[in-house]
Amino acid sequence: MIHLGNVMAVVINLIVKNGLMEVIDMLVLNNSQKDAINFIHGIGIVVAVPGSGKTTVMTHRIGNLIKHGVAPESILGLTFTRNAVQSMRDKLKPILNEVAVRVNLSTIHSFCHTMLRNEGKAFDIIYGKEQIKFIRNVMKQLRIKDISIGVILREISLSKNNLILIDEFRGLYEGDIVMLKIGDIYEKYELEKSKKQVMDFDDLLVETYKLLRDNEEIRQKYVSTHIMVDEFQDTNPLQMEIIKLLIDDGVNSSFWVCGDDWQSIYSFQGASVGNILLFKDRFSNTQEFIFNMNYRSTPQILKACQNLIQYNQRKINKTLETDNDNGDEVILLECSTEEDEGVQLVNEVKDLISRKGNDYKDIAILYRANFQSRVIEEAFSENNIPYHVENGLNFYTRFEIKVLLDYLRVIYNPETEEGTEALISILNVPNRYISKKLTLEFEEYAVRHVISLYEALKKMPVKVPYLYKNIKELRQFLDGLMIEAQSMPPADLITLLRESLDYDRFITDEDIPSLDDSKIENINQLILSAARYNSIADFLNYTETFKDKAVNDKDGISLMTIHKAKGLEFPIVFVIGLVDGILPIRKSGDIEEERRIAFVAISRAMKMLYLSYFQTYCGTVYEKSRFIDEILRTDGVINGSNNGGNNGSENS
For 54, phi and psi rounded to 5 degrees? Predict the structure, then answer.
């Protein structure tokens, strides 16, 4: 029996072998896309607007290279996430069938890891808590206590990704006491890792760079005839240097990258928009392919995108074009407070679902920082609107929130099962050096004597003096809070906990600083939420509702930060909290990157785009974001016939 799938595989192979790919291209690809695919030798850069099909083009170019006799093994395709690698493999399968697995597709980190292993490097990788513990031990040896571990990790990582080694680091920060201390930690950290034969993820890149730079024989083993890099705007200087060392400069080779400078939003991870902006200056005889045609959005949405990005000075000029039908104008929601913003979003969503026939999964709510989700989650939950927080936790299950709620559960009633579970979770928050073994002994003591775990903390003998002291202080602390709770509302109790535990320092000490994810702001939001309740019981009962399926419904509305939305698209997008101080964020020193972040947000929308802002937040008056007026200006134009035809490839 002949299966249809087998027939299709044979047909695809015949198409590739007999040079008929161009026939298919004529049906699904536009001229700019075909030109980029048919570029075989030399240096080329694709600068692509959102929704223009650049990843599809990259996979088709791989197929075209193989059709022209290039061995699959001599093609190296690099990108930045495992999901992107898998997506590319999936798109290659129908083009190349079994040949697809022979193409070298990899993340840059995975490529470096494999190369180091192949060259006999013996090492273990440390990351996460293990890396934090390693840094803490280094700080202990140097007797340095007054710097956040997260800040140290960030500065070391940024230095490595910018090729700033220890001696240069010290020279850059001469006279800066804090940074010079970080320099001491940096030096000791590298020394200790070398002794113990461990590397962090940045070391994979650094060591690969050194090996390729210093050993020509090894470099020649890894030089690739055809190198392709996706999302090139996200490369950092170190990655750029590694890629340059892998390039084959022969006449029958190629170096081909694709990206969009307008979507460069990862400088906090070391990415440099200069890599794409200066590409033609760094590589002579570069052929540039501009993808202006957007297959995702309506002309009205693209006009808003073009209006906004035109205010950036450092950019590659492109003009957003589309053949898509006209759609609705961008809608602006003016709100009095962040709570009013939640109410207005609920009203709009109800209208979109009941009157306009949309599905919940068609809608995305995008925000600059994670703390903004709280008000929206509460508004949706109270109105039975299903949602999920994409690639993240809903507000009340985030670590820094859950810990404080567990303290409240213990304070409310430590004798219940919930109180016992909460007590176990807070025993070492902050760290009181109570081991799992000792915790288990307390639990067994409680069972034997038919008492609660809280009573066991008071009655079980503890022989180690410092542990006895720590447990006694915890009991006294909790006993005092139970007395306070008789007359103190939950918001004030949380504030007291925050101050007594030096909680802000605790939750940020190991955290790499991020403008997107402020744990401090999350605590501020928790206090605002608790302020509506007079009793701990009522507030805790309210937070329990967020464990329901409705708030984790994958068919519900998607809530996410703008950074997590990159590469995604939705028929309907709400971009919320558009005020100066949030977007653009107050702490950012780069207004152009903030504008690119806003651009990424609004360019996720396919059919409808909502913008919203509030006049006051936490009682403080805020100005409407400057980006709103830039987006909604009336003098911009979008090129395109707007006749509803769509003769290009689907967006990647």
Answer: -70, -35
